[in-house]
Structures
1.
Amino acid sequence: MGFSIYDFHNPEEIGTPFAIYGFFNAPFKRWKKWSLNYEIGFGATFNWKSFDPVANKYNIALGAGQSFYIDAGLILNYHINKHFNMETGFSLTHFSNGALKKPNKGLNTIAPKISVKYSFDACPTFSRTEIKPFQQRNEWLISIFAGMKNVIFNDAKINIIEKYEGLNFPVFGFSTVFNRQIGYKSKFGIGISASYNGALNAQVAVDENELEALESPFEDKLQLSIYPSYELVVYKVSLVLQPAFYIYRKKLKNQTPVFHQRIGLKYHINNKLFIGITLRDYKFQVSDFIEWHIGYILK
């Protein structure tokens, strides 16, 4: 587990956020005293000075006081002695609320690192052991998901505070993935997802200075996408990467790109059940919505 505090040198508009997250650090390659490591972290951040159309109108990066935290890094580690390690490298960090509250351009940072780490317990001595060959196997995952997307209607003639509250629309659907696990750490597969996005082609009316959603055709909100899938497996947790393409949706104005990205975490409750969270975005930086999954595994 980790805790970080960030200073963007603009506390009046950005705030001084802090993050609470879980992370995983492991080597690509280990030598006698050196190792080349990767690190991945997921969590939540708090204490943002969020967007306000009157008091903080220039912060279009974050519309809420909380956000998700995603971090990935590459680290060169040097083992000094049984308690001390020195590290250098860099990390990429993304802050976003997943379109739960607009505006949500998000923030991305790149940070060089140099650090000295002290271990209260002596670092373990590594010894090579024989690991039995992995028996490759297939699995079929079926899951349902739900979420929410916030939409702001800039043309609505209402009080500016009410306008930027926007309206929340439901998102739900199901996905299925066929995986081939080729080793202890990696799964490759192909998947398909069908979703209902209530924010698509959404229309509103104004009633007593409040927005009311109007009914629109059900088929306007349907989407079907296909994607290759990769999972990095760490015991019961998987990091899921899925570059995706829409293969069916109705042509509408101001659509998101056909090519989009899915990145998520999956936790296996047991051999059959799992839960997960997937961020669907596009242009590798703009959040579309978040999917909260529960699923079943067939082997």
2.
Amino acid sequence: MAHDHHDPHDPHDPHHTGHGHRHGTDIDWNAMGPLLESQAELFTAVYERAMAWLAQEVTGPGLIVDAGSGPGVVACLFAEAFPGARVVAVDSTAPLLERARARAARLGLADRFDTVAGELPEALGELDHPADLLWASRSLHHLGDQRAALAAFGERLAVGGTLALLEGGLPSRFLPRDIGIGRPGLQARLDALEAEWFARMRAGLPDSVAETEDWPALLTAAGLKYTRTRTFLLDLPAPADDRVRAYVAEHLSRVRGGVADALDADDRATLDRLLDPSDPASVHVRPDVFLLGAYTVHTAVRPA
């Protein structure tokens, strides 16, 4: 969330708007907050469809926990989608939790909105009550031992409570295969480089354990009863509006910075043109920019 999960600067991923994982301290989260909020808002349709589906899975949740909430966009959407629920946003980054509380206040949700500061999964131990619904959107893959983290998530569920895990899906697409400059297939090559980056990121995490990413099997191994998987499509076709263009430019800029050394000269030159606002081929003005992605949610229940 990110999000594509292959984003070289994954903390900025709108599907991982949470930063409940351990991260570097060189990021100015006060400055990043507005960008994280605007990007998450762009994906509101995905979250709303996921919540409508979860409403069929979960009956009247009393407590909803967003594990890795970031600035609270999704947590507030949960509060709106489930008006009888109390919502707790859990994150390690205080400035983002401040934005979450401010957002809840602006929306008139403050009376049933709380925050907990701390690293995942340990911070979940600070909850006053077990969760009826625990949402983890691309925060799990920033934890070295995902199997142990899933077990910890499950332990913080009420009996009969649901864990909703957003992991996987497909990398987003922004441009046609042939964009008229450079070699065709740029995004496919970037995907491959980003996948390599993601593997290195996972391997470098504290206590990293390699796992087959069979999420239903991992949920079952964590002692939960796997229920269902559903994928939600975000389809914002060309011509893109300014929000989509800004998101695409930001994404490609981070990719350019994250995998630049692995790009050949032709692809670097193409990315530079795509990012140059004065270039008629840039994503800021070209007519064929779009945003298309698929985001997968897996659910499981804590048995009696």
